[in-house]
Amino acid sequence: MASHVNPTVRRRRLGQELRRLRELKGMTAEEVAERLLVSQSKISRLENGRRSISQRDVRDLCGVYEVEDHRIVDSLMQMAKDSRQQGWWHAFGDIPYSVYIGLETEAASLRIYESLLVPGLLQTPGYAEAVIPGTVPELAPDHLEKRIQVRMRRQERVNEPERPLRLWVVLDESALRRVVGSHLIMREQLDHLVEVSHLPHVTVQVLPYDAGAHAGMSGTFSILEFDDAADSSVVYIEGVTSDLYLEKTNDVHKYTIMYEHLRAQALSAEASREFIADAAKLHADARG
């Protein structure tokens, strides 16, 4: 298969199709697990795309669901084969948020609300080098370098020539005020934010302190959307030991409404650009 095949998205699509076949058969995940002598959690992981799916798994599940159309079986088997390929991020070894990277790489648009730091897709190398060990204090030096490289590689998606990522960021004022690394690093970072905000496919809005209580006070989140209608939107919530992926229509709808409220309370794109530029000047003054 072509090298552009995204294994994360293939697993997700395959899992959705397997869930559809199970529901058409009127079976529960527990019933399927009993038939195959496996755990119910394995069936759930296969259906939510968080686990690699072997062709044998597909064959066994199609047998349980009595799929007689060989074209459907062959298509699912090919998807299972594709899903076991490696994405570009696998070259960096064990990355804890590799599932998210796979989704981000394939996403058509990404909406981010961040309350404490500049999102990884918009970080400068200096900011990344300072913020990563700050948030993961026991990270080994070689792992730090690897994470910085991965973060910079991810940013290529923002300016991909043929298909740039449509990026919308609502950023709390605290992310602009907190000194990460040094005032010089912050000045460079905020100047970069201003520069990137001029791109036609990137929007940055600041949520100032005086906006008061807002819908994002319960935590940060991202909403990923895809061009292919077969790929439903995903809400991503990053955790310390595990991450949360919400795909149910009702969950995505609730977070979408929250994001609309955040956008409405935030400064306009132009006013945000001026706000960030002023904050950058304050860091410059503090530096010197």
UniProtKB/TrEMBL annotation:
Pfam families: DUF5753, HTH_31. Residues 18-73 form the HTH cro/C1-type domain. SMART domains: HTH_XRE. This is Helix-turn-helix transcriptional regulator. It comes from Streptomyces bugieae.
